[in-house]
Design a protein that fits this description.
Layout (H helix, E strand, L loop, with lengths): L4 H5 L11 H8 L7 H13 L3 H21 L4 E5 L9 H8 L4 E6 L2 H10 L6 E5 L5 H6 L1 H6 L7 E5 L8 H12 L7 E7 L7 H14 L10 H7 L4 E2 L5 E2 L20 E7 L2
Parallel strand pairs: 1-2, 1-4, 2-3, 4-5
Antiparallel strand pairs: 5-8, 6-8, 7-8
Protein name: SAM-dependent methyltransferase
Keywords: Methyltransferase, Transferase
GO molecular function, one term: methyltransferase activity
Length: 275
């Protein structure tokens, strides 16, 4: 990566008084790369939704399954947009288990994620890290690391694991997906998990609203979406079975982790293909 690239692309410097969604997600997974402000916010979130750590684990489980489905369809290059901090088993571990020559590019602009991500990947020949803002597709796709690592003549697997919830509207989400997919051929995939609020007056909607309100105290741009909103944003893509469903019901009978409060229903997952 060119010298100075990190400071040019990542935005704000590290602020120990400001929580980081990447570090809080790391906390949910049992990680230790966090600060006091992150632990304080995490404790507040647990009061509203004690099952939040389980949701993070289920999200990782779903992404691993999506990678395997994409790999079974012939995908051998992946772009993880908003990768966060390294975990016990990372996306590239899933990819390399399928094909040791397959390529993974992580993208994040969180200062802590950049430091840990680059250190972790120093010894890998087919896994890379690009310090860039996932909400700026041009910045990401023009990043030297991304240009060098990905072959635009071959389909790609794009992964947005709980990273699209700061986009304000459906049109912006549809445009962002189109910007990422346009350089790549038919047969490319998009794997998405997204926080959901049915907004239908149900108890689940009330539960989702309480969690969303607590998150917004610290991350004002965050917004949950309905299933219908996410469906509308994906109208140009082929949505694969089982469709756009919550993570509690994605799995076949016998593999579902249904929680007592229904918290697992607050994350939608979908795998879509570029026609």
């Amino acid at each position: 990566m060119p010298e100075g690239d990190v400071t040019r692309r990542v935005g704000p410097e590290l602020d120990l008084n400001r929580p980081s969604d990447a570090r809080i997600y790391d906390l949910m997974l049992g990680g230790k790369n966090n600060f006091e402000i992150d632990r304080q916010v995490f404790a507040e979130l647990l009061k509203v939704a004690p099952e939040i750590p389980q949701l993070a684990t289920e999200n990782r489980r779903w992404i691993a399954a999506a990678i395997n489905r994409m790999a079974a369809a012939g995908i051998r290059q992946f772009l993880d947009l908003g990768s966060g901090l390294p975990a016990e088993r990372n996306l590239h571990d899933e990819v390399l288990a399928v094909d040791p020559s397959a390529r993974t590019v992580y993208v994040d602009n969180d200062v802590t994620a950049i430091a840990h991500g680059q250190a972790l990947l120093a010894d890998y020949r087919s896994t890379f890290f690009a310090a860039a803002d996932l909400l700026d597709p041009a910045m990401v796709l023009e990043h030297p690391t991304v240009v060098d690592a990905l072959d635009r003549d071959r389909p790609v697997g794009l992964i947005f694991g709980l990273t699209l919830h700061t986009l304000p509207g459906t049109d912006q989400l549809r445009q962002l997906l189109d910007d990422y997919l346009s350089p790549f051929p038919s047969g490319s995939f998009v794997a998405i998990t997204h926080p959901m609020n049915p907004n239908d007056g149900s108890r689940l909607a009330d539960f989702a609203t309480s969690i969303e309100a607590k998150f917004r105290e610290y991350f004002p741009r965050l917004r949950f979406r309905t299933r219908e909103e996410l469906t509308e944003a994906l109208t140009d893509l082929e949505i694969l079975d089982p469709g756009i469903v919550d993570l509690a019901h994605w799995w076949p009978t016998g593999q579902q982790n249904l929680s007592p409060t229904g918290a697992a229903r607050l994350i939608l997952g979908t795998l879509a293909r570029k026609p």
